[in-house]
Amino acid sequence: FAWISLLFWSGLFGFWEILRHRKMPGIKRVPEETKLSTKTAILMPVYNEDPTSVYANLLAMARDLSATGQGEAFDFFVLSDTTKPQVWVQEEALWLQTKKLFPKEINLYYRHRPKNIARKSGNIEDFCMRWGAKYDYMVVLDADSLMTGKTVVKMAQFMEVNTTTGIIQAPPMIINRHTFFARVQQFAGRVYGPIVSAGLAYWQVWDSNYWGHNAIIRTRAFMECCGLPVFPGQAPFGGHILSHDFVEAALIRRGGWLAWMLPELKGSYEECPPTMLDFVIRDRRWCQGNLQHLRILFSRKLHPVSRLHFTLGIMSYLSSPLWFLFLFLGLGIALWREFFPPEYFTDTKTLFPTWPVFDLIGTLVLFLLSMGMLFIPKILGGLVVLIQHRPLKEFGGFFGLIKTLIVEFIFSALIAPIMMLFQSKIVLDILLGLDAGWNAQNRDETGTPWLVAIRRHFWHTVIGIGVSVIVYLYANSLFYWTLPITLGLIFSVPLSVWSSRESVGEWAKRHNLFIIPEEYQKPDILVKAEQAGAELQQVAPREKGVDLLKMDPVYQAMHVYMLSVNGPEPDFEMKTIRGVAQKIQGYAQSGELALTPDEEKYCLYHPEILHELSLLHIINTPAVTA
What we know:
By secondary structure, the chain is α/β, with parallel strands linked by helices.
């Protein structure tokens, strides 16, 4: 109850702040045309991502920055932790092609780490140790981040004039997704997100959190304060911190710097997982990282609001098993009374029987109050749209907006118990010592296959049917009260599959459901990113990995040159080394080269092997006669 009440009051204060059109007090502002005198690095950490999409977003941002007339104040860095050899070579090749298309006044750099120690936080740390002293600020992105040039310039201007500020977070808006599940997330972020952001900013003020991307950071403050600990012991509670962003914000505040989240910063975008199962995979990693914060919660000299951020992050996942236990115990009590009726007349001699007490009024009041706290912030978000947004056709019209709000309420209620069981299992797995690891996020909207959904939701369906049957037979008075929970579980498989389909999302769009303004009229920065993607598709080499390097001497020379900058090669097993020697010998004889990923990676770290493969390719390629 405390958890949902905090969200309710944040939403209520956010609604009030939006109606007042009030900007965040306490932070200095300058005119938009103010010339920047500092240098900012824009960092794109990547890990086995689609290089074309990554470079398209960066090219669009660079062109938008150039249009502001302040492009010379920024440099771009692609910081690769990619482990797949073919993606690695593709990143290098597209870096060269993208650099040719970049505005002349803006630099684009690329670095590949041989060992991705500490994942994204280690990637940023490596940048700071190599080049951090050259830059006043750094804007940290995710692989799907997109920000307008105007927004990035404004963030740098805020940093220049507010010299005690360490972090400024721009709330990202979810766009560019088409499955039904993703469209629901986009709509919720667009309608409910602003009042949530405004409410958080209202009570956080300069003690804000950091979300790991779409934020600007004072490089000196980060380097002075944000050396992250490595916990003793094994994962999931030991090792490097997964949810490092919360910790970095807390360390910035502990160092005396301010951290802001400014809802007035528009033009900040990201994408969301396309399916329910992809959402859960991401949640698994976040949950492990947040539960690691139990080891930091009582560290010395942390600001009280930082401790509150940690607590909220931990409770965002512990609330699911607590809710599950609450339901389990409540149902258990009801069944116990069914099988073991209360004794009205005990052996003890009393003047009156022992009547069971049931407070109907108190129960209804608690239920209505809880439902109100859950749904009123959503209603307030809809009211903000109705009051302030014109034209309403950008939300599907008046009736389209109302229909969408109702469908979103229903869909959220149906998937809530599914997510509860998913998160409860995630928490249990972590407590049992199972490590989530770190895998690249799926960004393809291919949909969830039926067999996969049946396997992942099998026990959800069984539990939903089992509880419904038991309640109907033995506690019939609770049957309709439990339907909001059991219905979602019973239909978890079709809900997961249908919501993952892009065709269902398109159907919703045709019926004016889950329409957002950024879809009705695409932001200019998104149009630029799509155009940049089309340009890069035309110039991207078709070959990949070692095949490209043995055929093209320019890409090979560039790759070999970069090896000296990237750092020492990782260790390889002897069977990998022997396998490469055998396959090169076979390539010389048959012209066929079928390398495993480890063998291909070994080749990429050895220029003499690449040179030998180039010579063999020339020998094996038939001469073309005039």
